[in-house]
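Retro notes, structure queue

What went well: the backlog is down to a handful. What didn't: a couple of records were mislabeled last round, so from now on we paste the full input next to the output in the thread. Example, using FGGY-family carbohydrate kinase from Streptomyces dubilierae:
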Amino acid sequence: MYVGIDVGTSVVKAAAFDAEGRQLAAEARPVGLSLHGGVVEQDMEEVYAAVVGVLGALTAAVAEPVEFAGLTGQGDGVWLVDAEGRPVRAAASWMDGRAHELVDRWLADGTFETVFRRTGSAMFPGCPGPLLAWLDRHEPKALDTARAALYCKDVVFQRLTGAGPATDVSDASMPFLDPRTRTYDDRVVELLGLTHRRGLLAPVSDPVATAGARGEGLPAGTRIANGPYDLPACALGAGVTSPGDGLLIVGTCLAGLVATTELDLTGEPAGLYISTDRPGHWLRAMPAMVGTAALDWVLSTTGVRHDEVDGLLAETPPGAHGVRVLPYFAPSGERAPFVEPRLRAELTGVSLESTRGDLIRATCEGIGYAARHCLEAAGLTGSLAVCGGGTRSPAWMRLLADVLGRPLRVVEGEVGARGAVLAAAERFGAGLDARAWTRPTAVVEPDPERAAVYTAGYAEHLEQLAGARARARA
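Corresponding output:
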């Protein structure tokens, strides 16, 4: 049995797989988010307790010895720990918006662009650079007390194993890592005013760190590999490794990823280049801030249940009777395929004749248009896989295929956990058959007539977005 652990933003999951990649069982526990005034934080102890809980339940449900475990989790944010790996303060989430004024300043004075040209990272308020700079200004004692500023999975790895603080090249990619040397760029640290905090950056393990479990959740001595974080882990779990091929993750975060061997730091600064376990291979990533979270908000506001979505989508034609949604609901604005910290969602074209179905379809279409924008900016030329919670809706998958105008290789199950196991297998030399492990569960073809309607709709989406961005800057 091989175990994959995926420490998500709202749900912690663990899955067990056999040697052929069949998912034997999965366990999940929700974790909370504290949102107030643009500040988004998480309780590290709650997150770790959820990890131990799902692992305990999983190993109890599947009575097989654990060969090894792979760990992945949400990226970005700042998770401050002391010398024993205990929390110094609540974790600042990647969704946090408190540092938007710093990002605004760096956008205006050229720092933002300079950092992108050096590292391929387009900073946003919830990434470690701005958050550490904000904490340095407003909570310096927290940084004085901390031993390391880690990422989510790194905290869990340290607690599960007792290993020292460390991260991997994928998590370190935003915003301090030079993608060519795979080491921190101290000039970027200096540009962000953090040279005196340089010691908080965790050592980069390349390849990923491994250690034995201490006995919490997993049997003592179980081998665990730390990384990569959830976006590249999902790419591995979906079999997206050949240049030009892409992955769309329809989860809390809507992320478009394209595998590449070319590092192009020209053009509009946006997204990031994620370093992988293979030097010279990157993922060009355009992780938008909000995916299923936008639909969840609309469902909650309209009183619609998740199991009603497919039926409502069937009631309304493409175009949603003129209702449009710009799905930029995050408190910190948008980060891909452009950075606009003050951008907010817009709902237009609504009248007394509009139905709940119109609102739901318009939201799903808006998310689809945002996905198309991300994938085009990331340079998609090959096949496209799709994974995440959104794949549970067949009607939404058909809509996405139509909006994107291309077939979708649907990969279901715990794809991030699956990728974490494959990364661990590479580290431990286990020789698992990656092709068998990443077979799609379905292929959804676009409908040519609907795809033509959505091509026109996408052009209108871009026009409306340009106006929204101009208003956000005014």
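Agreed that this is the format going forward. Reviewer comment attached to the example: The chain has 16 helices and 24 strands.
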